[in-house]
Write a structure and sequence with these properties.
Strand order of the largest sheet: 3-5-4
Shape: globular
Number of strands: 11
Order of helices and strands: HHEEHHHHEHHEEHEEEEHEE
Number of helices: 10
Radius of gyration: 24 Å
Structural class: alpha+beta
Number of domains: 2
């Protein structure tokens, strides 16, 4: 087999970069890791690759400072339509970047033990998910859904906090029929505004369908899939809105309860979407003539038609077992597996039948912690040995 020369390798690399840059949309995902460029937190997996892990949203809501918002409206990672939206309301970019970050964090949590663990490359701002997004697979379906959910969630939360000028609380719920022992009040979070903005933002990130193109990154089938999955992501948040109430009355009698709607924990939506990823529906494009719009239908007659809350996909998933530089897949060699688990994180599945090695390493951890009045916690530092199982 002939080895490639250095010039041929460079040419191939440039070609791959060009393909990846043109084929992957929603480059605004990189806004979710901008802060990590200043203060990165990287988790190393022995043997092959480092993963960017996103800190908890609850720890720090802000990702991009408002003073930087206008500058980022001109960011090369936004489409022209997204730049227009951003310039019209630059303060919303704060919420968008928080939504992107929230989506990445949730994706990595849900798939942390799977062969595809939602790896992102913080040094590739144009394409942080790699070539995985070139295929219209189950994993791409989840990324589109969780991203749309993240933007809807963060924009809704920003509205209720008074961080955006175009929205506030959802007062429409007050006009709804109420129970005899409670009434609507307080500040209900306006998920409908968040959904509308998320939809507008996602569609602004789309490139026009090429003339007559059906399949591929710029085809009509992929466009319909992305819109369907994005909508399913938004519905996963809206359908889990919570009603919370507070008692009012003399001496704590709770004669009147005032209630309002608030967002659920984002983890609830993420878990629901991860379950939908497992049962995602394989579909294909059905063209019904010049006067009827094309739609997605089950790929085989025996499959049920997906509803609006299901995830859909068009292509089989790539092989995540082996390293694939073209698609940016690191493979599972060197990943830590769970020897006793029968799930996706178990050594049998995660190591793809290649087996695993066991190593023992010494770790130092806090132990024997006790509370000291007032107000401190004292711990000892203990050394102990830990077994780890590493995929071959």
């Amino acid at each position: 087999m002939r080895l490639l020369t250095i010039f041929e390798l460079v040419a191939v690399s440039l070609l791959l970069l060009a393909v990846l840059h043109k084929g992957v949309r929603a480059n605004w995902w990189s806004l979710g890791i901008e802060q990590q460029r200043v203060e990165p937190r990287v988790i190393s997996h022995p043997g092959h690759h480092d993963l960017m892990s996103v800190d908890s949203m609850s720890a720090q809501h802000s990702v991009l400072g408002l003073s930087n918002a206008e500058r980022y409206c001109k960011n090369a990672h936004l489409t022209a339509k997204q730049q227009v939206i951003c310039i019209q309301s630059p303060q919303v970019l704060q919420a968008i970047s928080s939504g992107a970050r929230l989506a990445i964090e949730e994706c990595q949590h849900q798939f942390k033990g799977a062969r595809w663990n939602c790896t992102v490359d913080p040094d590739s701002a144009d394409n942080i998910f790699g070539g995985v997004m070139l295929a219209n697979s189950r994993e791409a379906a989840f990324v589109y859904a969780i991203s749309a959910a993240g933007v809807a969630y963060s924009v809704t939360r920003a509205c209720s906090r008074g961080e955006l000028t175009d929205c506030s609380c959802d007062n429409r719920v007050r006009s709804r029929q109420r129970s005899s022992n409670w009434q609507w009040g307080g500040c209900s979070e306006d998920i409908h505004f968040g959904e509308r903005f998320s939809r507008e933002w996602s569609e602004a990130g789309e490139e026009p369908v090429k003339d007559g193109a059906i399949d591929g990154p710029n085809g009509l089938a992929g466009l319909l899939m992305r819109r369907h999955d994005s909508e399913a992501g938004r519905r996963a948040v809206r359908s889990r809105m919570q009603r919370v109430c507070k008692c009012h009355g003399m001496s704590g009698s709770c004669s009147v309860r005032v209630c309002w709607r608030r967002l659920p924990p984002f983890r609830a939506a993420g878990t629901a979407l991860a379950q939908l990823h497992e049962g995602a529906a394989l579909v294909r494009l059905a063209q019904r003539g010049p006067r009827r719009p094309a739609r997605l239908k089950p790929a085989r007659p025996e499959l049920k038609r997906p509803n609006k809350t299901d995830l859909v996909y068009l292509d089989d998933s790539p092989d995540y077992c082996e390293r694939n530089l073209t698609l940016g897949i690191p493979g599972t060699r060197g990943r830590i597996c769970n020897r006793t688990s029968l799930g996706l994180d178990g050594c049998r599945l995660l190591c793809c039948g290649r087996g695993y090695q066991t190593r023992v390493r010494e770790v130092v951890e806090k132990c024997n912690c006790h509370f000291i009045w007032c107000c401190d916690v004292k711990c000892d530092m203990c050394r102990h040995k830990r077994e780890e199982h590493i995929c071959n």
